């Protein structure tokens, strides 16, 4: 799906989920994670509310509940099942090795998640690229990072949760270029 669309990712928390999320973001659409640990009725309601255009399933997440399978078929969603990472090399050989040229706007939707809502009905929450873009820009400027430097993705996730990223945690993994819409001078460490 193109930018502005939403892809539902049926997956549990795993390294392969990161692969799926980054693949979606690199290709333009936002993502919605559907965790198999949640009840089928809740996942179905999230699908109905979010109206995704595509379905991405991690094989490792196990069998998809029947009502979700029916939703995917009835909605005509483009569908792809990703194999475990150890089989990914052969699987990926079928696809283009060239990354699409996408540059999302900082205010564009990056992901959709759902809360329980005060009524027990899932309530959608839209997240944009802005918070991470702002953090990366701030971190690069204040840590002297360049396009040749690398940071651990785990460090970025912990920073989002409120912990500080220390120089000892910086290892090879390129920081993306932050959009120019991010504030030029943050007052304090956003973590």
Report on the structure:
- This protein has six helices and six strands.
- It starts with 5 loop residues before the first strand and ends in a 31-residue tail after the last helix.
- The C terminus is likely disordered.
- The protein is globular.
- With 191 residues, the chain is an alpha/beta fold.
- The chain has a six-stranded mixed sheet with strand order 4-3-1-2-5-6.
Essential attributes:
alpha/beta, globular, 6 strands
Brief rundown of the structure:
This protein is of the alpha/beta class and 191 residues long. The protein has six helices and six strands.
Mean pLDDT: 75
**What's the end-to-end separation, in Å?**
32 Å
Biggest sheet architecture: 6 strands, mixed
In angstroms, what is the radius of gyration? 18 Å
**pLDDT below 50 for ≥5 consecutive residues: which ranges?**
153-191
Spatial arrangement of strands, main beta sheet: 4-3-1-2-5-6
Q: How many DSSP E strands? A: 6
How do the helices and strands follow one another from N- to C-terminus?
Answer: EHEHEHEHEEHH
Structural class: alpha/beta
Oligomer: single chain
Strand content: 15-25%
Please work out how many helical segments DSSP would assign.
6
Percent range of helical residues: 25-40%
- Give the overall silhouette: globular
């Amino acid at each position: 799906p193109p930018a502005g669309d939403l892809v539902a990712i049926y997956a549990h928390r795993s390294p392969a989920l990161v692969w799926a999320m980054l693949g979606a973001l690199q290709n333009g659409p936002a993502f919605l994670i559907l965790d198999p640990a949640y009840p089928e009725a809740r996942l179905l309601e999230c699908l109905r509310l979010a109206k995704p255009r595509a379905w991405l399933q991690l094989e490792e997440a196990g069998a998809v509940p029947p009502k979700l399978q029916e939703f995917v078929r009835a909605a005509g969603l483009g569908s792809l099942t990703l194999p475990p990472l150890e089989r990914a090399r052969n699987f990926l050989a079928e696809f283009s090795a060239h990354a699409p040229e996408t540059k999302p706007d900082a205010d564009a939707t990056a992901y959709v998640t759902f809360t329980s809502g005060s009524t027990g009905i899932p309530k959608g929450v839209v997240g944009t690229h802005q918070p991470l873009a702002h953090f990366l820009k701030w971190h690069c400027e204040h840590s002297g990072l360049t396009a040749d430097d690398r940071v651990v993705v785990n460090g970025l996730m912990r920073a989002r949760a409120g912990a500080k990223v220390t120089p000892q945690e910086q290892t090879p993994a390129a920081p993306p270029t932050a959009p120019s819409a991010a504030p030029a001078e943050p007052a304090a460490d956003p973590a």
